[in-house]
Each structure stands twice: as C-alpha cells, then as structure tokens.
C-alpha cells in the first residue's frame, strides 16, 4: 500500500504534483491502475494507467484506445528511415518504459508501434512496461535500467544496451531509431 501512496504523492503529467488526502487506488486484473484523486471526484477526474508489462492489444482497449488508435492511424514514418529500420532492427531487443498517463508517452508510443509493425519487427522481442508517475512498478521492473523519463525505449543487442530514445525525438522518432539501429552517432536529448 505504501507504493500506492507514493504514486499519489508524485502525480502530474510527466512531472510532480500532489493530490488530496482522500485519494483511492484500484488495481484490476489487467494491471490497470485507476486513481481517483478525491473520494468526491467526478468521473472525468479519474485517471487510468497501465502499471507493469503490457502489449499492443492492451492499448487497443478502452480507455487507452482513444489516444493510441488515433496516434497510430495518423502517423506515417518516412519511407527512407523506415527502410533503414526494417533492414537493421531484427538484431535488437527493445525494452520500453512508458506512462500511459503521460502526454509524451501518448504521443510517441503509437508511433513506435507503427514503426515496428511496418518494419515487420518480431514483437516477441519487445518488452513494454507501464510505470507510475514515480517511474516505478510494484515488481521493480525498472530496476537496472537507469530510467528517469518516459517514454524511454532502450535498444539492446546481445543483451547489452546500444542506445536509447528518451521522451522526444532529437529529429523525429523514426530518424532517431534509424540512427540507433544502423550504428550511427546518436545522443538523445538528455545524454551528456
């Protein structure tokens, strides 16, 4: 329960904001956490998030489908970058940390899935993890990944990190991923 209290203490769109003392948390069997900021809150004040491992199919269900499907259907990666990704990504495993509550994750996550789908990437090599506003999970799935911002997409080759995409594209998500998987020099916006 103390983890869930921590969730409430760290509560904004990708940042920090505290909530009232009357907060409630409900977790369902699909790892969706529903936070009600106040016991008297209106229905539109309810935030839902996925905490723990999830798949694309989970994002295609309400309440996530409204933003996921729109972003997925509207996004068209450039043909040149997509060709580079398609040719090189099969050697990589991808571990992604996102906040389904976070506007940056909601913007980039549909794009990532569209890129992977169009590149013919084997999604069994993809691990997606939904985190709380405190960037954590009850199972500590984030441990060892040095992840501080969402979304973070980590590209691994032979079990070792090659590079990562963090929060937003330096150029665009597909250009950044193309650079990562082709071995070009790339630093995310937060890299030293």
UniProtKB/TrEMBL annotation:
InterPro entries: Thioredoxin-like_sf
The species this protein was found in: Antarcticibacterium arcticum
Listed name of the protein: Thioredoxin family protein
Cross-referenced Gene3D superfamilies: Glutaredoxin (3.40.30.10)
């Amino acid at each position: 329960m103390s983890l869930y209290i921590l969730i409430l203490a760290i509560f904004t769109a990708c940042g920090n904001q505290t909530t009232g003392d009357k907060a409630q948390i409900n977790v369902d069997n699909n790892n969706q956490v529903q936070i009600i900021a106040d016991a008297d809150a209106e229905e539109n004040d309810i935030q839902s998030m996925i905490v723990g491992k999830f798949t694309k199919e989970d994002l295609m269900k309400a309440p996530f489908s409204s933003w996921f499907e729109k972003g997925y259907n509207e996004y068209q990666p450039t043909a040149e970058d997509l060709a580079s990704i398609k040719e090189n990504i099969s050697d990589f495993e991808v571990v992604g940390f996102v906040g389904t509550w976070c506007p940056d994750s909601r913007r980039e996550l549909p794009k990532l899935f569209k890129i992977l789908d169009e590149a013919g990437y084997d999604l069994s090599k993809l691990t997606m993890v939904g985190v709380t506003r405190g960037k954590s999970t009850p199972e500590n799935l984030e441990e060892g990944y040095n992840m501080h911002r969402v979304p973070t997409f980590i590209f691994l080759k032979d079990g070792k990190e090659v590079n990562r995409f963090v929060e937003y594209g330096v150029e665009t998500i597909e250009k950044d991923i193309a650079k990562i998987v082709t071995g070009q020099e790339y630093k995310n916006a937060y890299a030293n």
